[in-house]
Write a structure and sequence with these properties.
mainly alpha; two-stranded antiparallel ribbon; about 65% helix; about 0% strand; transmembrane helix
Length: about 500
């Protein structure tokens, strides 16, 4: 005879299974929880990194974010608000779109805003542009334009996007771990193995051992392989730091830890300061830099956001086996709506545009298939608001092995591209290689789209090109030439 508690547990589990379609998608409650945790561990760095990028940069008026002058205060505010917005929008993705996709402040966009946009205006003015960009994309989603563009993309180019993102996140992994680095000598190659062509330092060893452990556990089909690997590597990193006092990676200490040093914090809890929320001026940039410049900046932000998410959700859906025969993920319209809202929310909270994270693929690699994993990730972000010091316990070197394994899994889709057909093979090739080479998903997608249109026209098959592909290719030409166009128009 079962107890009332057991009956209640089954009832709760049944509700979750029905609402999130866990069994229908071939997953389990345990997989979703593990997947959500893994995704958080592989992208928690943003709570540390975003404040270092935007919290220490002075705007056009010589002020830090929030109008202060103390970098320590600014960094603390950005860290807490970054975690808050990431948590809320990721939970929204899980509940509203039921998709294993997490969101947070977009890297690349935040640096572009901090160093290229905010230098000519106040930070609040720059955040106003981000809010406007997000609202414009939301309108494009609600009118069906964004989804229509997504559906117009040929299937094999969608496959190429997934493969390219796989290489991209693997490249991110080896770079962040210090396994591959930019050489000190300006005349050397763009990147090299370790320091001076050889691997040095205990942190790199942690990365290598973590990668080997995850690969072995995954090959042996151990449940929680990625999560176990991250946690084991983190424990090893903490022990090594406690014994060897390795310190942070710097020019004088190339064998140090990347971004955060894995040591137990002196203070375990922090009091959240949410003063940054609402610190934006919607149309302030138009007065500071003029209408034309402001519109060009919005266009640049919008196009990057627009196609980064399209590529990310395609890759996540493909890796999870959720995409339909045309390569379209389930609830794609809802995914795009949440992503658009997240972009505006990041600006409204003064922490830069929030967007979908390809690191979500690590959670999918752990077995996540539904939005429940996103809710777990979002809750972790909310918890990190008050236990922010704990986020620094997981260094790059312990988390990035997961990205290598997932990059491999996504790379296996390359077999679905017909490399005998030059009209799709060459655009696919450009898409795949340019994502890691340019460190940009949008650049890879744009090059592939433009090449696809050019080759179709060159072979007399212009009628086979979807009308929206013409529009998108033209927009990408503008995107690639945005620098000269800005100089010419302003």
């Amino acid at each position: 005879m079962s107890s009332p508690q057991a009956a209640t547990a089954r009832s709760g589990s049944g509700f979750l299974d029905s609402f999130f379609k866990i069994s229908q998608r071939g997953s389990t409650l345990g997989r979703e929880v593990r997947g959500g945790l893994v995704t958080f561990f592989t992208m928690a760095y943003i709570v540390v990194l975003n404040p270092l990028i935007i919290g220490t940069v002075k705007d056009g008026d010589g002020s830090l974010i929030g109008g202060g002058t103390d970098p320590g205060v600014s960094i603390a505010k950005v860290a807490v608000t970054t975690a808050l917005v990431a948590g809320v929008v990721t939970i929204l993705m899980g509940v509203f779109a039921n998709f294993p996709l997490a969101l947070a402040t977009g890297l690349g966009l935040n640096a572009f805003i901090a160093f290229s946009v905010a230098s000519d205006m106040t930070w609040a003015d720059a955040m106003g542009l981000v809010v406007l960009e997000g609202l414009i994309i939301l309108i494009l989603v609600l009118t069906g334009f964004r989804k229509a563009v997504f559906e117009a993309v040929p299937l094999q180019l969608k496959v190429a996007i997934s493969v390219g993102i796989g290489l991209f996140i693997a490249f991110i992994g080896v770079i962040d771990a210090g396994f591959v680095r930019r050489p000190a000598a300006p005349t050397g190659p763009p990147v090299e193995l370790g320091v001076g062509g050889s691997l040095r330092g205990w942190p790199v060893l942690v990365f290598v051992l973590g990668l080997i452990l995850i690969a072995i556990l995954y090959a042996r089909k151990v449940k929680g392989a990625i999560l176990i690997g991250i946690l084991a590597a983190t424990v090893l990193a903490i022990v090594i730091e406690a014994i060897g006092n390795i310190g942070a990676r710097t020019a004088d200490n190339p064998g140090g830890w990347g971004l955060s040093v894995p040591k137990l914090p002196d203070q375990w809890f922090t009091k959240p300061n949410l003063d940054l929320i609402g610190e934006f001026h919607l149309f302030g940039a138009f007065d500071r830099v003029g209408v034309v410049t402001a519109l060009l900046l919005i266009f640049t932000l919008m196009l990057a956001d627009f196609f980064d998410t399209m590529g990310t959700m395609t890759a996540i859906g493909a890796e999870a086996g959720l995409n339909d025969k045309d390569g379209i993920p389930p609830n794609s319209q809802r995914i795009l709506i949440v992503d658009s809202v997240a972009a505006a929310a990041g600006g409204a909270a003064s922490v830069s545009s929030n967007t979908s994270y390809i690191e979500s693929a690590s959670g999918v690699g752990e077995g996540a298939r539904t939005g429940l994993a996103s809710i777990v990730t979002g809750i972790c972000f909310l918890i990190s608001m008050v236990v922010a010091p704990l986020v620094t316990l997981v260094p790059y070197e312990a988390a990035t092995p997961a990205l290598i394994l997932v990059g491999f899994l996504m790379m296996t889709q390359v077999k679905d591209i017909d490399f005998k057909d030059i009209e799709v093979a060459f655009p696919a090739f450009l898409t795949i290689i340019l994502m890691p080479f340019t460190y940009s998903i949008s650049a890879g997608i744009g090059a592939g789209f433009v090449a696809y249109v050019i080759l179709k026209v060159a072979r007399g098959k212009a009628r086979q090109i979807h009308p929206l592909m013409w529009v998108v290719a033209a927009l990408f030409v503008v995107y690639f030439a945005i620098g000269p166009l800005t100089d010419w128009l302003t």
